[in-house]
Amino acid sequence: RIAYVNGQYVQHSEAAVHIEDRGYQFADGVYEVCEVWNNQIVDMPRHLDRLGRSLSELSIDWPMSRPAVEFVLRQVVRRNKVRNGLVYIQVTRGVSKRDHFFPPANVAPSIVVTARSSSPAAVNAQAEAGISVFSYPENRWPRVDIKTVALLPNVLAKQSAKERGGKEAWYVDADGNVTEGGSTNAWIVTKDGKLITRPAESGILRGITRTAILDLVEREGLSFEERPFSLEEAYDAKEAFVTAATNIAMPVVRIDDKVIGNGHPGSVATRLRELFHTATD
Ligand code: PDD
User: What pLDDT does residue 280 have?
Assistant: First the structure.
C-alpha cells in the first residue's frame, strides 16, 4: 500500500510524521473521509469545501492548492488500486516544538492521505441485517461542526456501544434530543412516514452524505422535516438509520433495549441506500 505524506508517496508501512507534529500532541488538525465507488471519489467537491471550512475555522492554511489536493487524493486512490473503499486526508498545523500557541508562520501544515479498499458485500450484508445503536450522553465540545481529529469522546462513546453489542452510539443532549452518531448522522422515519433529521446549524457535523441524501429525498418527493428529535421519539419510530461516507444509509433496527419498527431494516432507508449511487453518479 502507498500513502502520501508531506509531498511524497511512500510505503504505507513506513509512512510517518514527526513526534512533534501538532496533530499528535494537541489533536490540532482536521480530516475528511470520502467514499470511493467505481474508482471515483464520491462528492469530492463537497468534502473539499468542508475541509476548507474546517481549516479556516481553526486558522490552518491549506497545505497546498485545492487542485493539488484533488490530484493527490486521486493519485492515492489510483496507486492503491482502490475500486471501492475509502480515501482519508488529514491536515494538521504542522511540526513545531511543543507549545500551545500557534507555531511561527513559516511552519507548514502537515498533510497525509491514505486509501483502502473495502468490500461492498460486507457493508451490504450489514445493511440487510441492520445495526444496533446505544444512546450516550452528549459530552463533546460545542464546535462539532468542525471535522477535527480530536475524536476521543467519539472513540469512548463508540467503544461503549460496541461493548454492548452495538455498532454506533447516538449522542443525546441535555434536552433529551439525539444530536448525531459517534461517526454518523442520525435519522428517523415517523409512523406517518415522515423523514426527520436534526438541522445542521447546531450540535452536529454537516455530513456530506446527509446533504446528498437530503437532495435525494427532495428528488424522490419524500416527506421530510429538519428538526431535532428526542430519544423517546426515536424509540417509537417506524424506522431509523445513520448516514456517513463509510456506510451510505445504514438501517438501525435497535436503539438501547428497544426494537425499532418490526426489527428489520426499513423500506425508506433501504430505498435511499439503493438509490444513493445512481444519484451521485
Ligand atoms: N465520520 N457526524 C460525525 C461526528 C462524523 O464523524 C461523520 C463522519 C458524520 C457523517 O459525515 P459524512 O456523511 O460527511 O461522512 C457525521 C467519518 C466517516 C469518520 O470519522 O470516519
Answer: 54
pLDDT the model gives residue 60: 98
Query: Do 93 and 172 sit in the same domain of this protein?
Result: no
pLDDT for position 279: 67
The terminus-to-terminus CA distance of the chain in angstroms comes to 27
CATH number of residue 8's parent domain? 3.30.470.10
105 alpha carbon – ligand 1 mean position (Å): 30
Domain match, 106 and 127 both? no
The answer to whether the complex's ipTM is over 0.90 is: yes
DSSP per residue over 140-163, as a string? S-S-TTS-BS--HHHHHHHHHHHH
**Would you state the pLDDT for residue 278?**
86
Give, using CA atoms, the residue closest to atom 9 of ligand 1. Answer: 184
* 97 CA distance to ligand 1 middle (Å): 31
Residues 107 and 180 placed together within one structural domain of the fold: no
| 44: helix, strand or coil | helix
Which atom of ligand 1 is least distant from the CA of 185? 16
The CATH number of residue 197's host domain is 3.20.10.10
Same domain, yes or no: 219 and 104: no
Whether residue 164 sits in one domain with residue 272: yes
Which residues are known to be catalytic? 147
Q: Please count the other Cβ atoms lying within 10 Å of the Cβ belonging to residue 166.
A: 21
Tens-digit pLDDT profile for residues 168-192: 999 999 999 999 999 999 999 999 9
Sorted by sequence, the CB contacts under 8 Å of residue 39 that are 6+ apart come out as: 77, 78, 82, 83
Positions in the chain whose pLDDT score sits under 70: 279-281
Task: Note down the domain range covering 23.
Answer: 2-118
User: Which residue, among 154, 132, 127, has the nearest Cα to 31 in the 3D structure?
Assistant: 154
CA–CA dist 95, 110 (Å, integer): 7
Q: Residues with Cβ < 8 Å from 58, sequence gap 6 or more? A: 28, 30, 93, 146, 148
Picking from 63, 98, 118, the residue at the C-terminal end of a domain is 118
